[in-house]
Amino acid sequence: KAAPKAASAKSAESRGWEPATLESMFAEGEISRLHKVGENPQIKPELTAEHLRATGGQVITRFPPEPNGFLHIGHAKAINVNFGYAKTHGGVCNLRYDDTNPEAEEQVYVDSILEIIRWLGFEPHQVLYSSDYFQQLYDLAVQLTERGLAYVCHCTGEQINEQRGGKDKGGARFACEHRDRPIAESLAEFQKMKDGRYGANEATLRMKQDLEDGNPQMWDLIAYRVKFAHHHRTGDAWCIYPTYDFTHCLCDSFENITHSLCTREFFQSRQSYYWLCDAVEVYKPVQWEYGRLNVTNTMLSKRKLLALRNAGVVRDLDDPRLYTLPALRRRGVPPQAINAFVRELGITPADAVIEVGRLENHIRDALNVCAPRIMALVRPVRVVLENLPENYFEEHELVYHPSDTAFGSRRVPFTRTLFIDSSDFRESDSPGYFRLAPNKTVGLNGVPYPITCTGVRRAADGSVSEVLCRYENEASVPKPKAYIQWVADSPQHGSPVRIDELRVYNPLFKHANPDEKSVTGGFMNDVSETSLEIIHGAVADIGLWDSIKRYAATDAGKKELNEQNVETLRFQFMRIGYFALDKDSSMPLSAIESDQIASTKLVMNRIVTLKEDAKKDA
Predict the structure, then answer these.
(1) Residues 212-247: pLDDT tens digits?
(2) Which is the catalytic residue, given 66, 281, 344, 560?
């Protein structure tokens, strides 16, 4: 029976996996008691009325990433929180790119962010950009200045730092010499900034807040700075760009965001967020903060990820050893496993560093129900069944999944010559070892009769080149204590399927927290030399190729293959681990459709190991 197409994780829940639901994230804790639309007070009552008319009482949230890098595992929580809160309350969530720093932003990140959101199963209500509002933001900056609540400053960064109390912010705070310049003068200077008459760092527009306040986010934050950089959307139309502190709350206001959900690092920014909305008398959303998500054994800092890439430690920011979401996707991690992981953790105010093993358990749970089983051999050894004729041939039907008949089955050839994995053979037997050894009998998965080792043949260097066995189809032998996997050596039947590269990924760092001060030399010196092992010469049974052909016969498969998004082809290599095809594979549709496997290149990533078995060497 032909193999079904490789299963996705979308239907995993219906086959026994019961991850935490989206609704469960918001069922308890402070987030379950947030305000209803329109309940948040405004500086003017008419702002509430206008807000309710605009929203119709509907919840509106937003996910506001800066397009200067790939999203990472921590962002998966933010995506679930923002899109999930809206969905569970009958509302909508916008994607808004915070594209106010043209020097760091790239279109590749813009495209990747939307793709990853959709990969996780969410769809933005609108795709927006902070740059959509550049004129409105500028107009409000002028208005703020006209009200005497902003001024143009010519201080250097070092001088501003001193005004705020120095490096540790413990010194005396004092006003900038430009703080009380006449309003008309600040307006004229701001116009000069806009006209390009100041260079970078020669002038900024600062908000006139409260230097006596204990919150550093009220110490005259910068609202606009000069940047002569080409913007990915507005080109060279602007040479001044608003800061996050000025932009974020106002864009939330423009979009009538009802719940501005963000991580705890922005807790102190809540005060300046409210201050600015009230200062220009616009609708004021509610900001609510939750704890950030980090996992052990990895690095999420964009700067440090770039350092790893630039040093050649990883190939790129989607290297499967990283925990950016494109990297996890490339490795073959199902998106449902990531969602289940963040939903299980819930939403609390505290930042959390979670053992990576918890994520891996969700990955295994998802793959256990969605990955077809394939017999694969990492380091194959040839076996010759000497008591069978040269042209001996049988076929055996093997199921793809032991507990789900929907996966179907395939018929694999069984011939005089076959391969087993080198780990399943020892020249010297030992107590408690049940696999193949001289004069020892072992079962073969899916085959009615066992085999008994009768000897070996050696290569010129003395290594074992062939294991000689007897197929016990004519004798009565005790039931073997162990069964091993095998792959027939039968090229005319397409067996074995040869895997050009098997990439086995291990933790990138030696320590759970490579940023710890106890790590001598910092995170770059903590990189593990065994984080990647590339194995050539692995083989698999014909079910691997049959699954690829089935997948390529579907419209979705054709599209994904053309786009090199092949990670949805996931498999359990029995007793080895879970693997997925990597985008470095070369699989032209023409070669697949014409059954020309020799014209392809198969590269497979280990997604995750199988659960540890204390007797796996027995």
Answers:
(1) 999 999 999 999 999 999 999 999 999 999 999 999
(2) 66
